[in-house]
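Dear support,

Our group has been running a series of protein-ligand predictions, and this particular one with BES is the one our PI (initials K.S.) wants archived with full inputs and outputs. We had some confusion internally about which version of the output was final, so please treat the block below as the authoritative record. The input we submitted was:
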Amino acid sequence: MEKPEPKVAKSEDHHSFAQPEQAIMTHLDLELEVDFEQKQLKGKAKIHFKNNKYDQLFLDTRGLEIEKITVGDRELKYTLHNEIEYLGSALEIEIDTFTEALNIFYRTSADAPALQWLSPQQTAGKSAPFLFTQSQAILARTWIPCQDSPGIRFTYNAKIKVPKGLTALMSAESLTTDSSDGLFEFKMEQPIPAYLMALAVGKLSFEALGSRTGVYAEPATIHKAKKEFEDLEEMLETAEKIYGEYAWGRYDVLVLPPSFPFGGMENPRITFATPTILAGDKSLVSLVAHELAHSWSGNLVTNATWNDFWLNEGFTVYFEYRIMEEIYGEDVFKMLALISYQDLQSELESMNFSEDTHLKLNLTGRDPDEGLTSIAYDKGFFFLKLIEETVGKKSWDKFLINYFDEHKFKSVNTEEFLAYLDKNLLDTIPGSKDQIIPEKWVYGPGLPDNCPQIVSEKFEKAEQAANNFIENGTAPTNTKGWMYQEWVHFIRSLNGKIDAKQMGQLDALFGLSNSGNNEVLFEWLMLAVDNHYTTAYGQLEKFLKDVGRRKFIAPLYKKMADDENLNKTAERIYKNARPNYHYVATSTIDQYFSNSNQ
Ligand code: BES
Ligand code: ZN
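Confirmed final output from the archive:
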């Protein structure tokens, strides 16, 4: 009789087949060869685990082709269970009750969602191919057989063979001294969850920025990147001043080709970043502050499951804004916080105040990607800001330093955090808990009434400027020193209140259709779609073709797809651009085009 399908985790993580109470992974030895022709990684993963005297080991896999599993010379029996959407196939391996390590020989599939293989044409330099991984949330299993749960941590060593002339980077310390044969070695001595496994291979240059910081990019981009991230070392020092020692040794940033679907990804020791933040004036470096902040909230103390995602992202946004405030001043902090507030308001409306607007999520049976909304980020931020305002910065910072220190290299769920918060902070400050009402924030919908109010003079002025233009057609004259956030706010304030002709007037004055700041350009293009401002359509098409960052392209496609005049155009552009996009982006955008199962 066929064995019953394994249960999706007995533990609380419903997105992993691992059964950590039986056997838990502790270390990985990875040996992979990168084959650009076959678009395939092939090699061996040696899994080390602590065995609680069980005779089976459960791992997560998705689309992996398993060649054999061995202990020494002996082959082990295994079952690759039926594939479940998003989760992949549980790999059940028969082991002895004393087995504590085994080798898995395997290869990845050509369409593994974590891997993006770029042809030379799809890179800035056009001369060499490029590969990068994106493992969060549950895509590590598409390139490594492992226990792919944020509650399980392991150390790793890796040997990566790449075509000569290319560089391999991983979320680990490099041990390579001579790479002339294309062999790169890495070691990560601090235990990390699988979603922080990362690899990038391409023609790459490096520039040091400080003693612990630097930037990698394609040679064509390195110069711009170096200038943009000038303040990196200062950011790292500022972060350490607020929350304690940086735990990971080096902090580098890798600027990826434009198809990277996210803004940034906090891979330990090396943040992966989109080139769309290279504005030329350091105006978008808050993204790097965000990824750096994850070195504490996320990488050091990790959400136990994807339902606790706000513990990663809410803390990180809070911390990002603190770093920005420290370096660039209070005005910048207020503008960032207000943009968060606006994003949150529009997300709440579009989510209809459903249960998905609770901080604690219930993603059972769904792709954890669905938790990637403004709730975790911005509602999370305002909850933490409220605690800060209620108890005072001094007590709150002291609490946070201890929180990170006591939970370092551990995973924490929402309930554990709330209990720790009560015991170590709120219980010691009479009345604070009644003022904050944490349950309302964490287990209730929408935005509670006690949400901190932020006022920004700069935004009030930008709004006034927008109103002047709407009401009597006078364009602002004092925009010389405007920061990009002021432009964003100005454009948002025009939403629904001006037409294509008026957009033309502003464009003639400020060249917004050609803005070099992608946040500004994005807002402007959204407005252009709303108003059928055809003058910007060329830029719109170019933007959709050049950029692969989901945060920008998905809302634009959605707006166009919902507009009967633009639906066909959107479909045409998408069809052309889709081969350049990452799985993460196409899996979202495909849904907007019912009959284009490309
Ligand atoms: N860790 C996230 C990206 C992520 C989350 C990838 C969940 C996959 C699943 C990263 O830190 C992030 O939040 N990136 C943001 C930028 C940030 C400044 C808000 C992004 O990519 O837009
Ligand atoms: Zn983040």
